[in-house]
Amino acid sequence: MNEIGKKIKEVRKKKGLSQEELAEFSKVNLRTIQRIENDENEPRGKTLSLICEVLDINTEDILDYGKYEDKSYLIVFHLSVIVFLAIPLGNIILPLILWVNKKDKIVGLKEIGVNLLNFQIVWTIFTFICFTVFALSKILHYGQLSVLFYFFIALYILNIVLPIFFAIKTKKEKTRKLYPNLIKMIS
């Protein structure tokens, strides 16, 4: 719980507010803001909700009730995508199951899961379209679209390499969103 002050300070700075402005807008004493940010005091009920309201964040996000860090779960979460090699749509189904079960229990999983699932949905749609157009071009003997086969293979390789790379990166660094956010379907 001693991270609350650090989180509030970080969000305040991102919003471009000074301690004085936060105190004024939230109607909380400046000295109270200073003590909270220096982790001398923990904000209680009304004070915390006033500060969170000004910073436009949820109280639960600051408190991380019952959340814990689990990098090994995040690594498995990234690698779960590779199941698409054996199970069609497994790259969406398995991570979705893992995400729904633990998103409120593991720090960072909620954001990482949204990021990963959005990428996988877009990847699946592109891969399906690419393969379908390629197959139709072969059936209709329209050979000029054979480049789509190579694009299809490249997409497959990309969806094997990225999860492995991101799992390694998660093991070495702080957890964060890694996949490119092309189209946001899940929020």
Task: Produce the secondary structure layout.
Layout: H1 4-14, H2 19-26, H3 30-37, H4 45-55, H5 59-63, H6 71-79, H7 90-102, H8 109-139, H9 147-172
N-to-C series of helices and strands? HHHHHHHHH
Strand-pairing-aware structural class: mainly alpha
* Helix amount: 55-70%
Quaternary structure state of the chains depicted: single chain
* Binned strand content: under 5%
Describe this structure in words.
The protein is mainly α. It folds into 2 domains: 4-63, lambda repressor-like DNA-binding domains (434 Repressor (Amino-terminal Domain), Orthogonal Bundle); 71-172, no CATH class. The chain has helices at residues 4-14, 19-26, 30-37, 45-55, 59-63, 71-79, 90-102, 109-139, 147-172.
Q: What are its keywords?
A:
187 residues, mainly alpha, 434 Repressor (Amino-terminal Domain)
Give a short summary of the structure:
The chain has helices at 4-14, 19-26, 30-37, 45-55, 59-63, 71-79, 90-102, 109-139, 147-172. With 187 residues, the protein is an all-alpha fold.
